[in-house]
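[#protein-structures] MJ: dropping Sodium:solute symporter here for a structure pass
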Amino acid sequence: MSGTLILIIFAAYFGSLYLISHIISKKSSDNDAFFSGNKKSPWYIIAIGMIGTSISGVTFVSVPGMVGKFDMTYMQMVFGFFFGYLAVAYVLLPLYYKLNLISIYTYLDQRFGFYSYKTGAAFFILSRIIGSAAKLYLIALILQTLVFDYWNIPFEVTVTGIILFIWLYTRKSGIKTIIWTDTLQTLCVIIAVILIIWQVSHLLHFNVSDAINYISKSPHSNIFVFDWNSSQNFFKQFFSGIFIVIVMTGLDQDIMQKNLSCKNLKDARKNMLTYGFMFIPINLLFLALGVLLLIFSGHQGITLPVISDEILPFLVSNYLGIGCLIFFTVGIIGASFANADSALASLTTSFCVDILNISSLDKDRATTMRKRVHFGMSLVFILVILLIHYIGQDNILNTIYKVASYTYGPLLGMFTFGLFSKTNIKDKYMPIVCIASPVACYAIEVILQNYLNYKVGYEILMLNGLLTIIGMLIIKQKPQQ
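AK: finished. structure tokens for Sodium:solute symporter:
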């Protein structure tokens, strides 16, 4: 019964998204609509939709699941996120609007040259494919367990079907469609997590006051850690949060593409600040849910799965009732689709603009090329998800941030060097610097772990950016006499 119900919810949900796509694409479905939303996107609609994009289905599952191991220390990073959003709003957005960019990596071409530009775009494409595929993999795995295993449908078919659905409703108008579908999906996510918290509290016979009291007194409600040997140390988490937002939002075509579809810089800044502020209470809700789940499982004597990402799906499907299962399904689909659809659009945009230089083609050829790339990126998503499934991971959110620390580090270094210095570099050597920096970071991480017993966290991102800057100073051009 539950598998059939989830399938019905999935079909109804997709039907709603496709209807929105059909209505929006009737007005405009050219490349301008796909890449920049015709520069007419309302800032408050983007702000709501961006929450769903950033949360993703992984946050929905991983953040409550990580409480048992890390308590609520994730909030240390979330606090850092907000200051990162301030930096993006007041440093990067003015630059992008001043240059009237479609792809933010065009800045690297103007500042340093061809090789830096292509290298920056390539690092974004690599990181976004891995990160978004990892997020969608977890959701596909959950749907496979809850629904498609019942009918003996292979995981490969499940993944292909999900990507096909996303391709269908994003293929015509891209960003112009996504800002509206993501708004619907974000509302579904927020409502879903609130209703799940309410249902768990009800099963525990808690009112609102009881729930808050039990959460605050739980040993898992601890937020701050100041032990330098811990990867959860406050300063590591807080400053990592700042830089993670700068690179995964401010230097990420996926998120910036939506911001650049606003009418002007003022609207884009309002969107960024609103979205950044709302991210704090929403993540607190997810962590509060994690604490409640641990309290519930303790009261019921339930043995939880070893893998943290399996805790919420396990409890929802076996102990929390059909109501929670419906809320969870809607939330997980909403969060995962909101992240994957914008990733697919931004990857298509970056590959078309940055790699293929689509602007040099006539309108009809450019539209045909964009459609082919969009379909090709969908196929790449399928292949990467299946590869992740073959490799396997425990906590996907941790994996995504760790991958980002290595792949976004060179972007952090290049943009920082470009914005805060006037020095020019020997552009042809930039690919070497951008490859050498992550390799050196990995070697440093291994040495610190093996010889000093220092466990490196996400601060490797800052080191990666610093090494890139040092490399750029090494290849700088001497001033002409």
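MJ: nice. Residues 12-392 form a domain with the Sodium/glucose cotransporter fold (CATH 1.20.1730.10).
AK: one more thing. The chain has a mean pLDDT of 84.
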